[in-house]
């Protein structure tokens, strides 16, 4: 047996006594040693420290392949206990993702720590149902394991050597890269490669080892063949819950990266002042961009008061528009109806980098309405959003989780109007002029109570691609952006 394989096996279990013999007995001992090593299963009693230490060991070349084979065999046994249990196939899919060769040892190691945190509750799930709580608990466990893994001196040295400043954001990006190409064929490709390596290693164990291990090895290989025969169909069923877990994990990694690694360079965009309403009105009157109307009649007049239908809906659980956080927000609607956001639906919210632009804010768009927008100018005009409210430049996606049905208000946005005022140079007071500027409105908008939004279901910030300014010669106040930093209402602020 090669020295590399000998050293790799030694990481898992001590050599059998007969290993120290000579000739045929030593060859048999080699086969036995391989067989004992790859029979490792999901030890439910492992401490986090044991898991983390094992993962660091698995980052050593060749050792990682033995780890992958151990995990595959353990997965196969779980599946063969009940081949119709989707949870067992979810666990296999997570194992296969952690075996993708192009990821590199560190990313594979980190994924394995996190996926173990998810895999254990999945396999222990009552019923076979992927609930929101199950996903949330699995992600919490995954992050706890990852934190211990990242704190190890050997891992810290790796960061320093390769220049990774923020491992959470780095892993979030890598996970999203994997998610973008994740499919049944890609998982089957990894499975086939791993099966080939498993057959090769167990073939050595069978030919070298004592007769007593041949039948168990044959049974194991037969079980893995059975898994492969069913994999085409069952991995397809597992893909949806797998993506659900991965999305929640990617979001959480992004949040952890923003929360724990605040690295600001240059200007702090959160301290910069936006235009005031009176300043914006004067600027828009002078510049007259095509998304602003001057001295126009309101096309979509706002609601003046709530109807009996609105009040009845509020009694039935729709957001309160007469008291509290959303008081009088109905005035931003031309027509307003009680509606729902269904589980699995993706909602979009446009933001800017300022301190008051919260990811879990009140105004949202349905996916079809957001994707139909071609420019920031169109967004401003249809959604009737002033610059002093929102400078734009970023957005987030909220995916309504299973079991949640959000009650919300929906309808076309009302026309927004501002009277233009000028400053009297003598008195310093602002005097109303005969001019008004307005934003047309008419675009469909959603009003949601922020308390109905779950942090785990919120995606990371992304660039709109529309920039952070509206006017060609306007100074861009957001220097150093995009930060794409989560800003959750309710968190402690500076």
Explain this structure to me?
With 494 residues, this protein is of the alpha+beta class. The protein folds into two domains: 3-260, no CATH class; 269-463, no CATH class. The chain contains 15 helices and ten strands. The strands form two sheets. The chain has a seven-stranded antiparallel sheet with strand order 2-6-9-4-3-5-10. It has a three-stranded antiparallel sheet with strand order 1-8-7. A hairpin with a 6-residue loop joins strand 7 and strand 8 (430-439). It is elongated.
What secondary-structure arrangement, pairings included, does this model have?
Blueprint: H1 3-10, H2 23-38, H3 48-58, H4 63-81, H5 86-97, H6 105-123, H7 132-151, H8 153-162, H9 167-180, H10 184-208, H11 214-260, H12 277-287, E1 293-294, H13 308-315, E2 337-341, E3 346-351, E4 363-366, H14 367-372, H15 376-383, E5 394-399, E6 406-412, E7 416-423, E8 430-439, E9 444-447, E10 462-463
Antiparallel strand pairs: 1-8, 2-6, 3-4, 3-5, 4-9, 5-10, 6-9, 7-8
Helix pairs in contact: 2-10, 3-6, 3-7, 4-5, 4-10, 4-11, 5-6, 5-11, 6-7, 7-11, 9-11, 10-11
């Amino acid at each position: 047996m090669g020295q590399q394989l000998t050293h790799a096996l030694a990481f898992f279990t001590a050599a059998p006594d007969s290993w120290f013999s000579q000739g045929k007995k030593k060859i048999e001992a080699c086969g036995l040693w391989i067989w004992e090593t790859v029979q490792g299963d999901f030890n439910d009693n492992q401490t986090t420290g044991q898991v983390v230490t094992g993962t660091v060991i698995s980052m050593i070349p060749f050792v990682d392949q033995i780890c992958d084979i151990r995990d595959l065999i353990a997965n196969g046994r779980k599946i063969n206990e009940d081949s119709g249990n989707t949870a067992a196939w979810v666990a296999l899919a997570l194992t296969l993702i952690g075996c993708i060769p192009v990821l590199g040892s560190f990313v594979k190691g980190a994924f394995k720590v996190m996926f173990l945190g998810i895999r254990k509750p999945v396999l222990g799930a009552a019923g076979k149902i992927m609930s929101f709580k199950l996903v949330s608990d699995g992600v919490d466990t995954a992050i706890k394991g990852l934190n211990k893994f990242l704190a190890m001196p050997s891992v810290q040295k790796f960061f320093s050597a390769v220049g990774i400043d923020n491992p959470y954001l780095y892993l979030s990006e890598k996970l999203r890269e994997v998610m973008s190409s994740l499919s049944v064929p890609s998982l089957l490709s990894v499975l086939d490669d791993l099966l080939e390596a498993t057959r090769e290693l167990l073939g050595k164990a069978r030919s070298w080892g004592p007769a007593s291990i041949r039948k168990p090895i044959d049974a194991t290989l037969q079980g893995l063949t059975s898994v492969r025969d069913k994999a085409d169909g069952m991995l397809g069923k597992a893909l949806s819950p797998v993506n659900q877990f991965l999305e929640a994990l990617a979001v959480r990694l992004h949040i952890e990266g923003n929360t724990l690694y605040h690295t600001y360079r240059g200007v702090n965009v959160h301290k910069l002042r936006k235009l005031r309403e009176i300043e914006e009105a004067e600027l828009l009157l002078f510049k007259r961009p095509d998304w602003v109307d001057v001295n126009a009649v309101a096309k979509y007049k706002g609601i003046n008061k709530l109807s009996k239908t609105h009040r009845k809906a509020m009694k039935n659980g729709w957001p309160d528009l007469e008291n509290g956080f959303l008081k009088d927000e109905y005035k931003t609607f031309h027509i307003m109806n009680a509606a729902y956001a269904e589980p699995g639906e993706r909602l979009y919210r446009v933001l800017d980098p300022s301190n008051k632009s919260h990811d879990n804010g009140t105004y949202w768009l349905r996916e079809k309405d957001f994707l139909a927008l071609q420019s920031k100018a169109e967004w401003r005009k249809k959604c009737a959003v002033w610059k002093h409210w929102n400078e734009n430049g970023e957005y987030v996606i909220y995916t309504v989780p299973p079991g949640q049905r959000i009650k919300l208000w929906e309808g076309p946005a009302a026309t927004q109007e501002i009277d233009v005022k000028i400053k009297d140079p003598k008195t310093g007071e602002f005097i109303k002029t005969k001019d008004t500027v307005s934003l047309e409105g008419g675009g469909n908008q959603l009003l949601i109570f922020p308390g109905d939004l779950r942090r785990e279901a919120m995606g990371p910030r992304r660039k709109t691609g529309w920039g952070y300014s509206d006017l060609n010669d306007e100074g861009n106040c957001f220097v150093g952006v995009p930060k794409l930093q989560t800003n959750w209402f309710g968190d402690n602020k500076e």
